Recover the amino acids of this structure.
């Protein structure tokens, strides 16, 4: 499996914020995000520069499981990059983790559906809005990439509704324009307000401080949940935390 980093930390975002968790950060992503602030995403080394020499590279599932066992923790967060692009490896990894009774969170941009839905406990979907489209870069062609796979999002929601797994819809909030787009996605996929988490956009504490109040106000106005980004507040933009 192509891996950027593995580490033990606390979950910094969403409904399991603060829970001690073993992180497996898959390398590579099918998108390239650049937010309206001109920040790249907080893990550009998995998406923009996956060849970064600090990335681990190939790891076997056996090696990953060996590391996981060292930490004696139940929660595992499989994140990225975009972990679902390595479909076969992801399923093999999930099967092994399930045999150890792990609680699996998969963090995804929601563009790809797959059999991983049979193993996940919490699916954390973070659809990428137009405020994340890169501009004035060599990746300008990414404008044409479909960032929203409605069919996949509908299926994720249906499976959640029949109790297959827990779900959270986590949106990076840049400005008011995001709300109309979130509502459009909600109308198509059919999930309720109380499953949405808004998270201020930012890759350092001052970014978060700038956008936190407005994000909270939007949550109050629309009945969404607020989530901060604890790992950025505690460790800044450091890797492996
Ligand atoms: S989808 Fe996620 S990992 Fe990929 S570029 Fe966007 S923010 Fe980064």
């Amino acid at each position: 499996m192509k891996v950027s980093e593995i580490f033990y930390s606390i979950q910094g975002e969403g409904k399991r914020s603060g829970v001690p968790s073993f992180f497996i950060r898959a390398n590579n992503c099918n998108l390239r995000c650049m937010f309206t602030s001109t920040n790249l995403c907080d893990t550009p080394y998995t998406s923009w520069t996956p060849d970064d020499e600090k990335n681990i590279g190939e790891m076997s599932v056996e090696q990953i499981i060996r590391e996981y066992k060292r930490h004696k923790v139940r929660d595992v967060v499989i994140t990225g990059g975009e972990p679902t692009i390595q479909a076969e490896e992801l399923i093999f990894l999930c099967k092994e983790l399930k045999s150890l009774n792990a609680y699996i969170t998969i963090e995804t941009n929601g563009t790809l559906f797959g059999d991983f839905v049979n193993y996940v406990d919490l699916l954390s979907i973070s659809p990428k809005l137009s405020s994340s489209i890169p501009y004035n870069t060599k990746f300008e062609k990414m404008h044409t990439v479909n960032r929203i796979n409605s069919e996949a999002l509908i299926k994720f929601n249906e499976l959640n509704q029949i109790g297959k797994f827990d779900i959270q819809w986590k949106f990076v909030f840049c400005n008011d324009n995001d709300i109309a787009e979130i509502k459009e996605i909600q109308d198509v996929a059919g999930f309720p307000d109380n499953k949405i988490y808004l998270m201020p956009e930012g890759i350092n504490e001052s970014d978060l401080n700038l956008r936190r109040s407005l994000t909270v106000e939007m949550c109050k106005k629309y009945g969404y949940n607020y989530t901060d980004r604890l790992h950025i507040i505690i460790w800044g933009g450091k890797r492996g935390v």
